[in-house]
Amino acid sequence: MLNRLFRKKISERTVAKLYGAIVEQARQPAFFSDLGVPDTLEGRFEMMALHAWLVMRRLAMGGPAVADFNQALFNFMFADLDFNLRELGASDMKVGERVKELASHYYGRVQAYDTGLAGTDAATLEAALDRNLYGSTLPEPEHVAAMAAYARRQLAHLEAFPIERLLAGEITFIS
What we know:
Blueprint lengths: L1 H5 L5 H15 L2 H5 L7 H20 L3 H24 L4 H27 L3 H11 L8 H19 L3 H5 L8
């Protein structure tokens, strides 16, 4: 109980800065123009979800000390999705349902991507990306393979990335 009293308050500005960097990376034009990710609302959500998963997976490696920050990042992401749906003109009565649906989709992606990483071959992660990131499109197999390789490179990079920098809202992604 005393830990809660002395726990450092999480800065929303810091969480927003980290989330902004995630969104900026997810919106890199090459994903859409060179790797065939659909340039649609769904495709953009999927790219953001992929990058959020990469960062939140790294934060989870920080254990209980980082759990509140990780949760704050998750909460910020879905508050932003709520805001954006309202800005796009979605019915106020439907926004809450849609955000819950997106959260459910996100958790499904997390499970699929984690399972894909645990697979003994590249095909498991590729199948998860094909099914989720590319949705109902028929991507070129080399695009899916390139996205799987990208995700693995980012994870390797982030595993070595200092947690303290993430907690300061700082991140770098590699190409």
